[in-house]
């Protein structure tokens, strides 16, 4: 605990702390500042409760909509102005300091200094500039007053209700708790690991082994902070971006579908804060995240799912959506069908080597790209299983406990690369948890399909090993929201009204050898729909190779959608021309979208980073 916090809380300032703290570099200063505040908070939970930061919040809510719910959402996700202001001040402080940083390196040592009046540190031995000074965090904790003795009687007085700005002066600003967990695949892949919940996170989760399978694991979100308007002055409708215009999407009683989504999401946000940890399941968390993103998930037909909100009209809504958006792949026809039928017949007679030779000859002939791709995909699968019959299944017949990456390397990536190999002049398939740039909330994605020259993302794919039900629901929520981010970015391009009528963005959710095409489309002002496409499986052994037909039909349906979106943009050869790197048309980069869906776009909800 830093000596700095021995003074009265109202005199605390992030800038004063940075100037007085001896720790280097800047990240260690910030880390120590946050740890000190956490230690103070944990040492006096009674004062925290009395101040009304947690329990008193719900008492100020008078209804499920309006400014109160927006205020609750803001507090739950850490979107308060004070913490954001501190971060901005700290960032400006570091930028100013770095402009005046002096570094002198010689044979005998290194000297670091700050010409803005900060601390000057001299090191007599030659060492890396990034190494920290001799005084450590442990030295601070050993040398100052314990946190339980820091608070004064003046600070512990009972707070009087008043304007929000007064609360900032009286409270220690502690990182708000995160009720929804996160979507970081790195933390959520292992569904059986022990989960440690911080005391200040009442909406965390128990270990999944000790709970029902709907529980959501505690995770560390991989998002940046998302700043919204002052939560005191906006309504919940303004927060999710709802506008009360005329709509064709209404229920039989006249209520708009978007209003039903907004109202029920608001009520669920309020009610979940009063629930116990065991009642906050992955299903509920998924519904809230999607509702805050203005997405109606048409697969949300589990207990407490969105289908409950629309009663008997749920199926009518689904029928209307799927009448406007095609999610059904075409069957193989002609030469392609003949090849697949022949291979299946040969494999049914256990003539696997003959089938491989048949496919090898087709690959070496001049055929249409699709015929060669189909033959290549079947050839690779048969060849791989002939080389290792127990690739996915033990000799006992039990499925192997493989990692996500083993499924990707052995079958998912090779087949997708075969399917897309004729369009790699306009598309890039980027594998391996690369970071999406669809927004400032940067997400790790297992496969991103990107326009090669325009760097516009056209699809996301999420891969996992055989998951629990909780992880499958959580991954679906993440997939739909990241696909929505791709859709929003796509709709900000200068496209025609005709082009955006078919604006659905497709992705794939894999779980081991199972997969499903999913999608998101914007069909009304502020109203998105999460769509279910065909479910398919890759073969676990040669005896069930027939399932590969349906898988390839689904993947070609997916490919056609992605290529159709890519072809809406100008010829890549124009952008690759050498002169274009010198002579650029500035007007081209300033063109804004004018199509009718431009005003329909609404923000996507992700949990703030580190919450």
Q: What's the helix count? A: 23
Shape: globular
Number of strands: 10
- Write the CATH fold name of the largest domain: tt1808, chain A
Proper CATH architecture of the largest domain? Alpha-Beta Complex
Strand order of the largest sheet: 4-10-9-8-7-6-5
Helical fraction: 40-55%
Instruction: Please indicate the percent range of residues in DSSP E strands (runs of 2 or more).
Output: 5-15%
Query: How does the major sheet shape up?
Result: 7 strands, mixed
Rounded to the nearest angstrom, the radius of gyration is: 28 Å
CATH class of the largest domain: Alpha Beta
| First-residue to last-residue Cα separation | 22 Å
Characterise this structure:
The structure is a single chain. The protein is of the alpha+beta class and 611 residues long. The protein folds into 3 domains: 3-63 and 75-170, no CATH class; 185-324, no CATH class; 396-537 and 547-600, tt1808, chain A (Alpha-Beta Complex). It contains 23 helices and 10 strands. A 7-stranded mixed sheet has the order 4-10-9-8-7-6-5. Strand 6 and strand 7 (457-462) form a beta hairpin. Helix 15 packs parallel to helix 17 (369-387) and helix 16 packs antiparallel against helix 17. The radius of gyration is 28 Å and the shape is globular. The protein starts with 13 loop residues before the first helix and ends in a 21-residue tail after the last helix. Residues 45-82 and 101-234 have low confidence and may be disordered.
